[in-house]
Design brief:
Shape: globular
Radius of gyration: 17 Å
Largest sheet: 4 strands, mixed
Strand content: 5-15%
Helix content: 40-55%
Distance between the termini: 22 Å
Low-confidence stretches: none
Number of strands: 4
Number of helices: 6
Order of helices and strands: EHHEHEEHHH
Structural class: alpha+beta
Strand order of the largest sheet: 1-4-3-2
Mean pLDDT: 90
């Protein structure tokens, strides 16, 4: 599944030279796992489509510079949750940048957190728990929220 959005926060981060910064736990899922594609106009040419695929590579998602966000997943659930968290990470980044000097965790912490998100079946260190149900629990929580907001959405 592939999802693509043009949200305010996503477009704002897509317009920043540094792209997504490791400023919060939600952004850590994507640490070193995002592709970037430079803006070429509306993507109508087959040549650019090939470059989009190349720039995505095996990443979880991509920031389309001056354009928006894109996520991929083996299922709708996975692609949607990635987009949900990527959008939240962008929203938090924009808010944090308006508030003063930023604190960026060390590279080792960012890499460890990315693995915790993306390798939930494998404990990262001795005495550390794994979180294999995290994606399912998050998905079920979002579906419950949707049911409260729009009870007839399944119709």
């Amino acid at each position: 599944c592939v999802l693509h959005t043009h949200t305010r926060a996503g477009c704002a981060v897509a317009a920043q030279a540094a792209g997504l910064l490791p400023l919060n736990q939600m952004s850590m899922e994507f640490y070193g796992r995002l592709g970037y594609h430079d803006y070429e106009g509306i993507a109508l040419s087959f040549d650019e489509q090939q470059r989009l695929v190349r720039d995505l590579g095996d990443h979880l998602g991509m920031i389309l510079r001056n354009h928006g966000l894109l996520t991929v997943g083996a299922s709708v659930k996975q692609a949607f949750l990635r987009m949900y968290y990527l959008e939240k990470a962008c929203d938090i980044q924009i808010a944090a940048q308006a508030g003063g000097e930023l604190v960026i965790p060390p590279d080792a912490v960012c890499r460890r957190t990315e693995r915790q998100f993306n390798e939930p079946y494998q404990p990262q260190a001795e005495g550390e728990l794994s979180d294999p149900d995290g994606i399912d629990l998050a998905w079920e929580a979002l579906l419950r929220m949707l049911e409260r907001i729009a009870p007839g959405y399944r119709d």
